[in-house]
Amino acid sequence: MRLAISSDHAANAMRAELCAWLSEQGHEVSDLGPPDDSSVDYPDYGYTLADAVASGDAEFGIALCGSGIGISMSVNRNPACRCALVSEPLSASLSREHNDANVIAMGARLIGIEQAKACLTAFLNTDFAGGRHQRRVDKLGSPPEGAPS
C-alpha cells in the first residue's frame, strides 16, 4: 500500500520507528516529517498529510502527535479525509469497517510502539463493510438538508 505519515515533534521518534517497520512490511511509505525534534505546529503536518490522502498520493494516512487529538482535528478539516483517533486495535478495525476511515491518528505519549503497530495492523487489514454503513459515511461529507443540528 501507499502510505503517508506525519507527526509533530512529540511523535517524531514513533514516526521514524513506524516508517521503518511499515517499509519492512512491504509498504511504500512517504514520510512527511518533521525532520527533527524541534517544536512544530501539528496543524501544518496534519494539513500536509490530509492533502496527500485527498490527492490520492497515498491510499491511507497515519497522523501522530502527543495525544493524537490535535493532529486528527487538523486532518479532519479536509472533507476528503475521515481520520479516526484510536488507541487499541478494535477501534482501529471498526474505524475502517464501519466508517471507511482513510487516516488513523494515534498519540505517542499515550500508547507505546507495540500498541501502535497492533493498531496499524488492524487498520490496514480491515476492509470497509459498505452496505448500511455507506449512506452514513456519505453523510459525513455532505449533511442532508434538514438534518438535526
From TrEMBL:
Q: In its UniProt record, which GO terms are filed under biological process?
A: carbohydrate metabolic process
Quote one Gene Ontology molecular function term: ribose-5-phosphate isomerase activity
Under the heading SUPFAM superfamilies, the entry gives: Ribose/Galactose isomerase RpiB/AlsB
Q: So where does D-ribulose 5-phosphate get bound?
A: 8-9, 66-70, 99, 109, 132, 136
Provide the coiled-coil residue spans.
none
- The active site consists of 65, 98
The answer to whether keyword Isomerase applies is yes
Report the EC number(s), separated by commas if there are several.
5.3.1.6
EC class name:
isomerase
Entry keywords, A to Z: Isomerase
Q: Which family does it belong to?
A: Belongs to the LacAB/RpiB family.
The name this protein carries in UniProt is Ribose 5-phosphate isomerase B
Origin species, per record, is: Alterisphingorhabdus coralli
